[in-house]
Amino acid sequence: TDPGVIRNFCIIAHIDHGKSTLADRMLQLTGAVQAREMKAQYLDRMDIERERGITIKSQAVRMPWEHEGSTYAFHMIDTPGHVDFSYEVSRSLAACEGALLLVDAAQGIEAQTLANLYLAMEHELTIIPVLNKIDLPAAMPDKYAEELAHLIGGDPQDVLRVSGKTGEGVEELLDRIVEEIPAPEGDADAPARAMIFDSVYDTYRGVVTFVRVVDGSLGHRERIKMMSTGATHELLEIGVSSPEPEPTKGLGVGEVGYLITGVKDVRQSKVGDTVTSQRKPAEEIIGGYDEPRPMVFSGLFPIDGSDFPVLREALEKLQLNDAALSFEPETSAALGFGFRVGFLGLLHLEITRQRLESEYNLDLISTAPNVIYHVTAEDGSTHVVTNPSEFPDGKTAEIREPVVDATVIVPSEFIGAVMELCQARRGSMEGMDYLSEDRVELRYRLPLAEIVFDFFDQLKSRTRGYASLNWQSEGDQASDLVKVEILLQGDKVDAFSAITHRDHAYAYGVKMASRLKDLIPRQQFEVPIQAAIGSRIIARENIRAIRKDVLSKCYGGDISRKRKLLEKQKEGKKRMKMVGTVEVPQEAFISALSSN
Ligand code: GDP
Ligand code: MG
């Protein structure tokens, strides 16, 4: 295809602003998908995406469009919207020349939109502002057209108004794409270079790698080389998605399509890597390459210990399609055998857990998530801590924790509520701007550990659901952190240890001790529950002794009832875990850990 008729673009939108619906309309209007094959949210293929209505993995679709007598080839690249996947977002943007900035005409700009817009501007993409859902009675297109024009410059008159639902304005949008988004440029005679912006595992076809060709071309049956590792593979199939896979003879400058090589693991075909041809390899990788870095760690333990091998196999399977997922075996005195799993963020954790439970039928306990700490002990030794159990004993010289720059957008009446929350979470304010008269963008630097738990929930509840949040990593900072341990009758319960700021340690200790007091049944002897920093006890509760005699509840001689009770008690015992000499029901661990 002549690069002159190619247009590569993505859609930037906050969740629920209508990206998938607009994509459906475009597929229909361009004829890429016939009406009878159309199903809502055609591109959100993974079940979990449909369930949650979010796009996790990007997809690239080719669509034809006639404009003033010429046929254009559009490649629409669907980017993941969530901050956990920001590296994948940045790679998808790098594969485009333009972006549709899609904003719900009843909601206005949200934090997610803004963050991705800034990324698109960094990549120097042409931005086409579009207000969606103009069919809604609550739509305020004039107000938000101003807001958009104010944000990206230009005239409010030029902001397109469409409805992905009714199709109104969508043809005009397709024409604007031809007119405003530049055609790709590249050197057709240079050695081939194609950037991987997505890579998905397919049970039947193995890994399917999505690429954007920058220079040269790639052909069917050619041997290709991954530039970050030097590994070579034969191209078994090359083609475009329109949106169903269609094999072609090759891909040239500016084209977006897929490659199949028979590799079985997405880690051999990594997002961000550059593909070249082995025969005539390129020298320089495109735009640098970043390994995915897990930000949040949590222990995952099967509730039924015999499920451990199933959990291992399930994690290995998920990893085939998720280069960012990392794990290693972990043993906990309280929870048994499991894995320490690294995630990009909390959504990634939640999705992974949900998939393990629904697709592999596992019941899991997950320990409280924590971030990575860099600890320098007093003797000068350094420790990378992804698990409280790795925290060095004794005095520490310095502890560094990851920090993020967060952006919150709220109606101005909630400024005070947001500031209060951010301050309680050790945030420092970096700036504040009015987007319009009544909507504000607040910028804070916050420790990552303070936002990975319930920050977003808190933010939503304090702003009646109006706030939107986005953040990006900004390195790390030294902080006054301590490890709080929970002891049952003098024995440490590893699953409940946590690393917290010194100012929050007391509250954590008191909360866990009193929660466990309610959850652990009385034993034959008194059980002290203590929270400690090192050897210093900061909180204490007592479970009083009781002589448990279930039979005393049955007055008289109902033998069958007695037997039942005894059996029930035996069953209950099976689900007990011994911590030192204390019997703790499995349920206690689950509830204590789940209600953070
Ligand atoms: P995404 O999260 O950005 O992909 O958003 P979706 O396309 O999934 O849309 C979110 C919700 O908004 C769905 O309930 C859609 O039916 C609805 N929606 C999308 N576009 C429109 C529109 O133009 N008009 C109306 N009234 N609703 C829309
Ligand atoms: Mg969607």
UniProtKB/TrEMBL annotation:
It is a peripheral membrane protein. It holds the Pfam family LepA_C. It is an enzyme of class 3 (hydrolase). Keywords: Cell membrane, GTP-binding, Hydrolase, Membrane, Nucleotide-binding, Protein biosynthesis. Coiled coil: none annotated. SUPFAM superfamilies: EF-G C-terminal domain-like, P-loop containing nucleoside triphosphate hydrolases, Translation proteins. Residues 4-185 form the Tr-type G domain. CDD domains: EF4_II (cd03699), EF4_III (cd16260), LepA (cd01890), lepA_C (cd03709). One of its GO terms (cellular component) is plasma membrane. It comes from the Bacteria. Its EC number is 3.6.5.n1. PROSITE patterns: G_TR_1, G_TR_2. GO terms for biological process: positive regulation of translation. It is found in: Cell membrane. It catalyses: GTP + H2O = GDP + phosphate + H(+). One of its GO terms (molecular function) is ribosome binding. GTP binds at D16, H17, G18, K19, S20, T21, N132, K133, I134, D135. Belongs to the GTP-binding elongation factor family. LepA subfamily. NCBIfam families: lepA, small_GTP. Required for accurate and efficient protein synthesis under certain stress conditions. May act as a fidelity factor of the translation reaction, by catalyzing a one-codon backward translocation of tRNAs on improperly translocated ribosomes. Back-translocation proceeds from a post-translocation (POST) complex to a pre-translocation (PRE) complex, thus giving elongation factor G a second chance to translocate the tRNAs correctly. Binds to ribosomes in a GTP-dependent manner. This is Elongation factor 4. It comes from Nesterenkonia xinjiangensis.
